[in-house]
Amino acid sequence: MDSVDASPSHESELDDFQTHVSDLFQNLIPAQSQELLTLAWIEKLLDTFLCCLEEFRVILLHNKGSLNGPPMSRYISDYYDRSIKAMDVCNALHGGIEQVKQWLKFLEIVLCALDNQTTVSEGQFRRAKKALVDLAIAMLEDKDSAASETHRNRSFGRSKHKEPKSFGQFRSLSWSVSRSWSAAKQLQAISSSISVPRSNETASTDGLNIAVFTMNNILFFVMWALVAAIPCQDRGLPAQFYVSRQYLWAAPIVSLQDKIIEESRKQSRRNSPGLLKEIQDIEKCVRDMNALAESVVEFPLNEETESLVRGRVGELKAVYEAVKPGFDNLDRHIRQVFHRIVRSKTEGLDSLRCI
Description:
The chain has eleven helices and no strands. The protein has helices at residues 8-26, 39-62, 72-114, 122-145, 165-172, 183-191, 199-204, 208-229, 250-264, 277-295, 303-353.
């Protein structure tokens, strides 16, 4: 392997990367516990990942002459293998978001039937009640099957735009996920063999392997947090991972991991298809509306019951209007992450071929 440039600028670049990663993840630790695992927090997590990925891409570009020989060739190869697995996770997450969008269509039916009505007729109420029952069944099936329809969803890889041949090849590697695909097993595969770099390898690469090790941990943690938050095929209980606290970024990442695991153990979250606060809001609205619908047996509604119905519909409308644009934005952001991983991998391998 060509000697790594151990100049002050090289060392500074690697040190700055470690420090910036630490700062970025420290900023993800919420001041209030209720801010964790919200759509806004997930968006911030994705921005953090994209920022880290770009800085890592630049580091590899500046050191591409040092990547072809051992041990860096092994580090880079392992990282790109994990990237492919992360692309599959993104596809599955897209499927989970599509499920939530289907839930929202049922809520649209309820709102069309009951919102802004002068009086609530029996026919309108029955239509809303049927939509609520169908929604409750759909959410229950999603919990039991853990996103059984994910395999039907189109991958982010399909596009009408022509791409360079190498780009299309890597896109096709993550086309969709099958019925037997498991998010839990995929996370296990991503985290497998992420071991602390050996000191002699760190010396021979002048710390470049530490940057790859850092990005491996970032990639795994971000995918792990997304699977915990968003409905995904065979999520299972989010698996823990361990990283030495000798690295600046380890403490904030471990702290975030602990907070997410603590959230997953709460009684109200144990049977949820995802830990996102907005999913919990949807579940609560559906439970409240279904309980109210079951209690209504006479029409026309008396003044007290109609007032109660309008109150519940108002709560449901507020949740719907807050959640729908949020999941649309999240879907676009996950797509962006997917494509940035693809581009990073493609550019990296193409640059190695040119050496």
